[in-house]
Amino acid sequence: MKIALVCDTWNPEGGGLERYVAQLVPRLERRGHEAHVVAFRAAPAHRFGRLHLVEAPAGRLNRARAVERALPALGADVVHDTGVGWTYDVLQPLAGARMANHRRAFASLPALQRWRRRARPALWRWRREVRELERRQYRGSDGLVIACSSMVARDLAALHGVADERIRRVSNGIDVDRFDPGRCAELRSPARAALDVDPATAVILFSAYNPRLKGLGPLLRAGAKMIRGGVRLRIVAIGGEPDAALRADIASLGLGSAYSHLGDIADPISCYAAADAFALPTYYDAGSLTALEACACGLPVVTTRHNGVAEHFTHGRDGFVIDHADDVAALAQSLEQAITPGTRQRMGAPARALAIANDAERNADGVVAAYRDALTRRTDPRKPA
């Protein structure tokens, strides 16, 4: 098959969505398919022959129209859109339902900030645009939709009436050869030395490009609670920088050297190697790749039920799942269990097995199966056009 894979940005070293697309392309090629990427932006160091850049107009609706105009010239058998436009055979909203994501993001804000944002005309314009984009994506098309979790499938049904027969559930996957406990064991001593932590100090890793949405605030409040209780702790965050309001909250906690933000890390394997546990107390995540990467490295993971990946966890066996990010007491309790001596050894094998069950190869198989279903629907006269 000739596949047009539509994304906003092509950058194998970017955030979760960008890295997912970059790992899918070679796997499609190895399965004998011809994968073309259609994007508005690309990292210069990673451009390649089947990358097709489209000029990016202002506004999501205009960008969707630009993609719609560009696709016919490519002559693809299957159009696979990751959430940019409404012209597709297979739509895979990697960020989940945008309005569900937005509502949970709002819940992460203090009350005063929520009030201020609601008063901004820009927010109302954004909401109108997103509602129209999603209306066209889900109600203006009969294409198939890949949901990376049952949570996303429920959101799509509740918000947009997407029928279950249009949905294919394909869990996100990661490269379990790259994220490997053996490699982490080799890197652990130098990685911890680079962080200047002694053997008695537990390291909790956090990784996100949107630290507010993904729960950095609750994590640090839980960490402060644990430290007051006598736990020797270091919280290490990588990825996007906190916004000004979150930085002020962090400063008020007085964590000092117990918290450090390392910024964007091209290869985070050394960070996983240094860690004793991984925490992502997210307000919303369609299906966290970083949580799966941590599992693949054999780390106990603490997250919330608003993370699609949490559907795969058995609480206390291969991960810890709390109900809400703002339940700091429950978060601190789960974190203390996660860093208890012996927990990593006990949970390492089940966590690794969970990651293997959700690896990038199985994900690619599921995506290709959706392509075939989409082609069958298009050619079968019994299916609606």
Short description:
The chain is an alpha/beta fold and 385 residues long. Helix content is 45%, strand content 15%.
Global mean pLDDT = 92
Annotated CATH homologous superfamily of the largest domain? Glycogen Phosphorylase B
Strand order of the largest sheet: 5-3-1-6-7-8-9
> Could you state the order of secondary-structure elements as H and E?
EEHEEEHEEHHHEHEHEHEHEHEHEEHHH
* Radius of gyration using CA atoms only: 21 Å
Largest sheet: 7 strands, parallel
The percentage helix is 40-55%
Descriptive terms for the model:
alpha/beta, 7-stranded parallel beta sheet, 6-stranded parallel beta sheet, 15% strand, Rossmann fold, 385 residues, 15 strands
Question: Which helices and strands appear, and what pairs or packs with what?
Answer:
Layout: E1 2-6, E2 9-10, H1 16-30, E3 34-39, E4 41-42, E5 51-53, H2 60-70, E6 78-81, E7 90-91, H3 98-107, H4 111-118, H5 121-138, E8 144-147, H6 150-160, E9 167-169, H7 181-195, E10 202-208, H8 216-228, E11 233-239, H9 244-253, E12 259-261, H10 269-274, E13 277-280, H11 289-296, E14 301-304, E15 320-322, H12 328-339, H13 343-357, H14 360-379
